[in-house]
Structure formats: C-alpha cells, structure tokens
Amino acid sequence: MEELRKIIEIISNLAILIRTSQVHDIKNVAVVNLIEKVTGLINNFLKDEKILQIDLVGEFFYANDTRLKYSIEHLLNFDFLSRELKKRNIGTVIFKNMLGTEDTKTFLKAFLSAGFSKDPLKTMLDSLKGMTSITVDRLKRVKEDEALDMRKVVKKTYFNAVSFSKGLMNKIKTKEAVNIKKAKRIVESMVDLILEEEQLFLGMTAIKDYDEYTYHHSVNVSVLSIALGQRLGLSKKALNELGLAALFHDMGKVEVPIEILNKPTAFTEDEWLIMRKHPQWGVKALLTLKTPDPVLVRSSIVAFEHHLHYNYSGYPKVRVRHEQDLYSRIVTIADQYDAMTSSRVYSRVPLPPDKALSILIDRSGTQVDPLLLKFFINMVGVYPIGSMVLLNTNELGIVYQSNPAFPDRPRIRIIMDSSGRRTDTTVDLTERDAEGRFIRSIVKTLDYTKYKINLAEYLM
Ligand SMILES: [Fe+2]
Ligand SMILES: [Fe+2]
User: Relative to the alpha carbon of 216, which ligand is closest?
Assistant: First the structure.
C-alpha cells in the first residue's frame, strides 16, 4: 500500500512538473525545484523497488503491473498526464538505476519538444537515446479481438440488468419479496465492468429501446451515475451504493397508472400532478419492501430528491432546504441526460446527445450541480457516443468511442460515404496524413432521429 501511495505522489508531481514547465522556462525556480522533487521521489522509490514501470492502458494507469486507484485530489493531474502521454503516443515510461537531476531535465526537455513534433514518439526516443535511467515505449491499443469479447460481456451484463429491473418493478407492484442480494450482485458486476470498459458500457446507454423505456432508463441512469462517480474518485463500495440507488430512483413509478405512464401524447395538468408524486411514492416503495436493507435508506433519499433540482425549483416542494445527497445530485444529471436522449418519455422526441448536453449546460447552477456537470461533460465528451456527425470529407458517421485526450476527435463509424452509399468502416479522427494534417474532422452534428438510423446496429 505504501508503495502505491508513493507512486501516486510521483505521477502527480510529474504531471505538475510538466504543466509548470509548459508555462515557465526550464530555468525558472519553480521548475528547478520540481525537477529536484520528482527526482528525489523517484529515487526514494527505486531504492527499494529497483524499477518503476508506468503504463497507460486505455483510461487507466498501471505501475509495476498494478492498476492505480487515486482519489479526487489527484484526478486532474492524472487526467492531464494521460492526455499529454496520448498526444505523444507514449504508453510506457520506465525509471531505473537511480536518476540524477540532469536525467529528469533531459526527459522533461524531450517530452516538451515532442509535443511540437509531427512524430512525437520518435523525437522522444531520439532524445533519450543512450540514457539508461529513463526509457519510454509506444502507446498500446487494446487489441481488437479482446475488445470484441469484452463487447459481448458488456452487452450481456447490460441486458441482465434490464431484465432484472423489469422483474423488480413487477414484484414491487404485486408486493412480492424482492431479492436485494441479486440487485447488489447485478450492480457490482456493472461497477466492475464500468471500471474496465467504461466506453463500451456508455455505448450501451446510447442505444434507446422504444418499447421498454422505463427499464432501460433505470439501467442507463445507473450506468451513467456509476461512470460519473468513478470520475469523482468514489470508492468501489460507494459506487455500488450509488449504482443501486440510481437503479431504484424511479421505483415510485409503479404507483403511476400504466395509461398515464405510457401515454403517447402530452400530459394534462391532472396527470402531471400524479406523475410528480413518484418521488414520494418511491420512498414508500423502497422503505416498505419485504426484505429491508440499510442501503435502501440511502436509495430512498435519492428517490425523494432526484427531481428536487440544485436550487430546489423542482418537486416535491420542501420547506427545509437541507443539503442534498451527493448521490441525488449525480443521479439528477444522469436522469435528465438519459430522459432527454430517449424517446419514450412524456411523449417527447429524443434529442441528439449534443443538444441534450447544451440544455444541461443551460441548467447548470439552477437545476443541476455545476461542478458535477463539468465532470459529466468531460466523461461523455463534446460529441457523446451515439452522436451523428458530418465530416469535412462529406462522410456521415456515428460517434462510437470518445477520446478524452482529444475531445473533438472521437472514433467514428462511417455509415455513408461522400457519394451517399452505405458503408461501415471505423475511423479515428486523430489519424493524420503524410504532411501531419488531420485526415478527417467533424463539421457539424446532425439529428439522427431525422435519418432512419438504427443506432443499435452500429453501437453493439
Ligand atoms: Fe423520476
Ligand atoms: Fe428517471
């Protein structure tokens, strides 16, 4: 444990050093002090461990083959370093043989100049040639066939959760005993997978099923909340609780008559009065379950608060403005985003993901927590998975994997070529031509609901 704490401190300070040297000269006293600090920290580690190998795989850092988990105070530093490494196509940095401050300085200079190079990795390797204490290696892509297998596991876990949430609502309706242990297991398996395969899981939430909105919605809100919680550095135990509370957030809808719930046209004022009672009904449903469990208390708080809004302008109306639960504020964002991008909700037409985000931005500080929203946007990207985009090559595509290092350059499934023919190829918008120019860029987003596009076909 002690070693992991040391490693996290090393990576954090390395990130601070790089960021500082991007704004100050390398001779600046702040930079000089940081070079000494980082060198000292690394040597202190190498004294006992001989080698420190840091790998960036997908979104995660590993040190000497152990996945690093860090708290929120380190999040920005880790995010920053991950972006800078990806920009340079570097996936591995190895420290060994004790370093001198000159070694750290050489590494820093190489790293900075690689940032302006057309072939950053080569620049970096050339500059570090002959150096034995610090070496780097290329960023490894997660293998395609491995990705395919993971896709199957993610899909199975997701649909498992959907069918569970369907059964759950029916049981609550008929007052049967609910298997809380099973609910916990399902959420735990989602948390585990989201920690490893966040992008694939977010992709599943972008597919909207029209017939079974309520069940998909519960699962989507749970997935989005867990993913956001992960960004905030919540512990695994906390993520399990959050995921469960999110899965149960609309449980009160079991009391809403099915004719209202599935009404294809707009609600009347009376119908709205009934709909707006579902937070209170949720508390009742959760606290009177035949199988009580402590986690249901926290879930009932989330059920009660999820439409309250950040500034209490929502419902139910409360007399005392107590501080809202963190989980409620997370679920509110996930809930609004999923509701807006789904079709079967209060008879609305689904909004394209980027439109939904811009509406959420309008609601920042009034309906939703502004800081949490920032993390949420960082997570789903400028062009969320499922967005339909027009490229400068006149090709039409669907965003299928976001790229935190380049938020405006996600991976795209091209579904129509420039002459209007249907195709299906995957491209990465960070690809450049021989002159170093980007091959493709996004010109604008389109509303996929206007094109007869089956998102599931491209995202699964
Ligand atoms: Fe709700
Ligand atoms: Fe909801």
Answer: 2
The domain ranges of the chain are: 2-138, 145-380, 388-459
Q: Is this prediction's pTM over 0.70?
A: no
Q: Which CATH superfamily is domain 145-380 in?
A: Hypothetical protein af1432 (1.10.3210.10)
Quote the ligand 2 centre to 154 CA distance (angstroms).
22
Is 98 within 8 Å of 46 (Cβ atoms)? yes
- Nearest listed ligand to the Cα of residue 306: 1
Exposure letters 10-49 (e unless 16+ CB within 10 A, then b): bbbbbbbbbbbbeeeeeeeeebeebbebbbebbbebbeee
Give distance in angstroms: CA of 327 to centre of ligand 2. 14
Residues of the chain with pLDDT under 70: 1, 142-148, 208-211, 343-348, 448-449, 452, 460
pLDDT at position 161 is: 93
Ligand at minimal distance from the CA of 165 is 2
pLDDT at 230: 92
